[in-house]
Amino acid sequence: MSEDFILDTDDLERRMEGAITNLRTEFASLRTGRASASMLEPVQVDAYGQMTPINQVGTVNVPEPRMVTINVWDKGLVGKVEKAIRESGLGINPQLNGTIIMLPIPELNEERRRELGKVAGHYAENARVSVRNVRRDGMDQIKRAKADGAVSEDDQKLWEDEVQELTNSYIAQIDKALETKQDEIMQV
Protein backbone atom coordinates (compact mmCIF):
# COMPACT_ATOMS: atom_id res chain seq x y z
CA MET A 1 0.00 0.00 0.00
CA SER A 2 1.10 3.56 -0.66
CA GLU A 3 3.38 5.28 1.86
CA ASP A 4 1.67 8.64 1.32
CA PHE A 5 -1.80 7.60 2.49
CA ILE A 6 -2.64 5.67 5.63
CA LEU A 7 -6.31 5.33 6.49
CA ASP A 8 -6.93 5.51 10.25
CA THR A 9 -8.87 2.25 10.50
CA ASP A 10 -8.54 2.36 14.31
CA ASP A 11 -10.58 5.56 14.30
CA LEU A 12 -13.24 4.03 12.04
CA GLU A 13 -13.37 0.93 14.24
CA ARG A 14 -13.60 3.01 17.43
CA ARG A 15 -16.53 4.97 15.97
CA MET A 16 -18.32 1.80 14.82
CA GLU A 17 -17.74 0.30 18.28
CA GLY A 18 -19.42 3.43 19.69
CA ALA A 19 -22.55 2.61 17.68
CA ILE A 20 -22.58 -0.92 19.17
CA THR A 21 -22.04 0.41 22.72
CA ASN A 22 -24.90 2.86 22.27
CA LEU A 23 -27.12 0.08 20.92
CA ARG A 24 -26.38 -2.10 23.97
CA THR A 25 -27.33 0.79 26.27
CA GLU A 26 -30.60 1.31 24.37
CA PHE A 27 -31.34 -2.44 24.47
CA ALA A 28 -30.71 -2.49 28.24
CA SER A 29 -33.42 0.16 28.63
CA LEU A 30 -36.00 -2.07 26.91
CA ARG A 31 -37.75 -3.99 29.58
CA THR A 32 -38.25 -7.69 29.30
CA GLY A 33 -40.28 -9.58 31.90
CA ARG A 34 -37.64 -8.93 34.57
CA ALA A 35 -36.94 -5.79 36.58
CA SER A 36 -33.64 -4.05 35.87
CA ALA A 37 -32.20 -0.73 37.05
CA SER A 38 -30.87 -0.06 33.53
CA MET A 39 -34.43 0.19 32.16
CA LEU A 40 -34.60 3.66 33.76
CA GLU A 41 -31.35 4.93 32.17
CA PRO A 42 -33.02 6.80 29.28
CA VAL A 43 -35.58 8.48 31.58
CA GLN A 44 -34.69 12.11 32.34
CA VAL A 45 -36.17 14.20 35.16
CA ASP A 46 -36.57 17.98 35.12
CA ALA A 47 -34.51 18.61 38.26
CA TYR A 48 -33.31 22.07 39.30
CA GLY A 49 -33.99 23.51 35.85
CA GLN A 50 -32.21 20.88 33.76
CA MET A 51 -32.86 17.37 32.48
CA THR A 52 -31.12 14.86 34.75
CA PRO A 53 -30.93 11.03 34.70
CA ILE A 54 -33.00 9.36 37.42
CA ASN A 55 -29.93 7.77 39.04
CA GLN A 56 -28.63 11.30 39.79
CA VAL A 57 -31.71 12.28 41.84
CA GLY A 58 -32.18 9.04 43.78
CA THR A 59 -30.99 5.52 44.52
CA VAL A 60 -32.32 2.89 42.12
CA ASN A 61 -32.67 -0.65 43.52
CA VAL A 62 -34.11 -3.96 42.33
CA PRO A 63 -35.28 -5.63 45.58
CA GLU A 64 -37.12 -8.46 43.78
CA PRO A 65 -37.44 -9.79 40.19
CA ARG A 66 -40.60 -7.80 39.41
CA MET A 67 -39.94 -4.58 41.35
CA VAL A 68 -37.72 -1.54 40.92
CA THR A 69 -37.58 1.09 43.67
CA ILE A 70 -36.24 4.62 43.52
CA ASN A 71 -35.40 6.35 46.79
CA VAL A 72 -35.57 10.02 45.75
CA TRP A 73 -33.13 12.14 47.77
CA ASP A 74 -35.02 15.44 47.46
CA LYS A 75 -38.67 15.28 48.57
CA GLY A 76 -39.52 18.11 46.16
CA LEU A 77 -38.54 15.98 43.17
CA VAL A 78 -40.71 12.93 43.92
CA GLY A 79 -43.61 14.22 41.78
CA LYS A 80 -41.29 15.10 38.89
CA VAL A 81 -39.65 11.67 38.96
CA GLU A 82 -43.06 10.00 39.01
CA LYS A 83 -44.23 12.16 36.08
CA ALA A 84 -41.06 11.41 34.08
CA ILE A 85 -41.61 7.65 34.51
CA ARG A 86 -45.29 7.89 33.53
CA GLU A 87 -44.40 9.85 30.38
CA SER A 88 -41.39 7.68 29.46
CA GLY A 89 -43.35 5.10 27.47
CA LEU A 90 -42.03 2.23 29.62
CA GLY A 91 -45.60 1.18 30.41
CA ILE A 92 -44.98 1.15 34.16
CA ASN A 93 -47.32 2.61 36.75
CA PRO A 94 -45.30 4.18 39.64
CA GLN A 95 -46.60 3.83 43.22
CA LEU A 96 -45.56 6.36 45.84
CA ASN A 97 -44.55 5.54 49.41
CA GLY A 98 -43.10 8.75 50.89
CA THR A 99 -39.86 9.50 49.04
CA ILE A 100 -39.72 5.95 47.66
CA ILE A 101 -41.25 5.29 44.26
CA MET A 102 -42.08 1.64 43.63
CA LEU A 103 -42.30 0.37 40.06
CA PRO A 104 -44.04 -3.00 39.86
CA ILE A 105 -43.05 -4.64 36.58
CA PRO A 106 -46.14 -6.22 35.01
CA GLU A 107 -45.96 -9.36 32.89
CA LEU A 108 -45.59 -8.48 29.24
CA ASN A 109 -48.57 -9.38 27.07
CA GLU A 110 -48.11 -10.56 23.48
CA GLU A 111 -48.96 -7.16 21.99
CA ARG A 112 -46.51 -5.30 24.24
CA ARG A 113 -43.79 -7.86 23.40
CA ARG A 114 -44.32 -7.19 19.68
CA GLU A 115 -44.15 -3.41 20.26
CA LEU A 116 -40.88 -3.80 22.20
CA GLY A 117 -39.54 -6.01 19.39
CA LYS A 118 -40.28 -3.21 16.92
CA VAL A 119 -38.58 -0.65 19.18
CA ALA A 120 -35.52 -2.92 19.38
CA GLY A 121 -35.55 -3.15 15.57
CA HIS A 122 -35.67 0.64 15.35
CA TYR A 123 -32.68 0.96 17.73
CA ALA A 124 -30.76 -1.59 15.64
CA GLU A 125 -31.53 0.29 12.42
CA ASN A 126 -30.21 3.53 13.97
CA ALA A 127 -27.01 1.70 14.90
CA ARG A 128 -26.69 0.33 11.33
CA VAL A 129 -27.11 3.88 9.97
CA SER A 130 -24.35 5.11 12.33
CA VAL A 131 -22.00 2.34 11.15
CA ARG A 132 -22.79 3.12 7.49
CA ASN A 133 -22.09 6.81 8.10
CA VAL A 134 -18.65 5.91 9.48
CA ARG A 135 -18.13 3.66 6.41
CA ARG A 136 -19.05 6.52 4.09
CA ASP A 137 -16.62 8.80 5.92
CA GLY A 138 -13.82 6.24 5.45
CA MET A 139 -14.67 5.78 1.76
CA ASP A 140 -14.67 9.56 1.27
CA GLN A 141 -11.18 9.78 2.81
CA ILE A 142 -9.96 7.11 0.38
CA LYS A 143 -11.54 8.86 -2.62
CA ARG A 144 -9.96 12.19 -1.59
CA ALA A 145 -6.55 10.50 -1.30
CA LYS A 146 -7.04 8.97 -4.77
CA ALA A 147 -8.03 12.36 -6.21
CA ASP A 148 -4.94 13.94 -4.59
CA GLY A 149 -2.77 11.26 -6.15
CA ALA A 150 -1.71 9.94 -2.73
CA VAL A 151 -3.02 6.45 -3.44
CA SER A 152 -3.00 4.19 -6.52
CA GLU A 153 -6.12 2.58 -7.94
CA ASP A 154 -5.03 -0.85 -6.63
CA ASP A 155 -4.43 0.55 -3.15
CA GLN A 156 -7.75 2.38 -3.30
CA LYS A 157 -9.47 -0.95 -3.91
CA LEU A 158 -7.56 -2.58 -1.01
CA TRP A 159 -8.51 0.22 1.42
CA GLU A 160 -12.15 0.18 0.29
CA ASP A 161 -12.29 -3.61 0.78
CA GLU A 162 -10.86 -3.21 4.29
CA VAL A 163 -13.45 -0.55 5.20
CA GLN A 164 -16.25 -2.71 3.75
CA GLU A 165 -15.04 -5.75 5.72
CA LEU A 166 -15.04 -3.69 8.92
CA THR A 167 -18.55 -2.43 8.14
CA ASN A 168 -19.85 -5.94 7.43
CA SER A 169 -18.49 -7.25 10.74
CA TYR A 170 -20.17 -4.46 12.74
CA ILE A 171 -23.49 -4.83 10.87
CA ALA A 172 -23.34 -8.57 11.68
CA GLN A 173 -22.76 -7.76 15.38
CA ILE A 174 -25.79 -5.45 15.34
CA ASP A 175 -27.97 -8.10 13.68
CA LYS A 176 -26.85 -10.71 16.24
CA ALA A 177 -27.53 -8.34 19.16
CA LEU A 178 -30.99 -7.57 17.75
CA GLU A 179 -31.80 -11.25 17.33
CA THR A 180 -30.72 -11.98 20.92
CA LYS A 181 -32.75 -9.06 22.29
CA GLN A 182 -35.88 -10.02 20.33
CA ASP A 183 -35.60 -13.61 21.60
CA GLU A 184 -35.27 -12.25 25.15
CA ILE A 185 -38.34 -10.02 24.68
CA MET A 186 -40.46 -12.85 23.29
CA GLN A 187 -39.60 -15.27 26.12
CA VAL A 188 -42.65 -15.79 28.29
TrEMBL record:
A GO biological-process term: cytoplasmic translational termination
GO molecular-function terms, A-Z: ribosomal large subunit binding
UniProt domain Ribosome recycling factor: residue ranges: 23-186
Keywords: Cytoplasm, Protein biosynthesis
Localization, UniProt: Cytoplasm
Family indicated by similarity: Belongs to the RRF family.
Record-given protein name: Ribosome-recycling factor
Organism: Poseidonocella sedimentorum
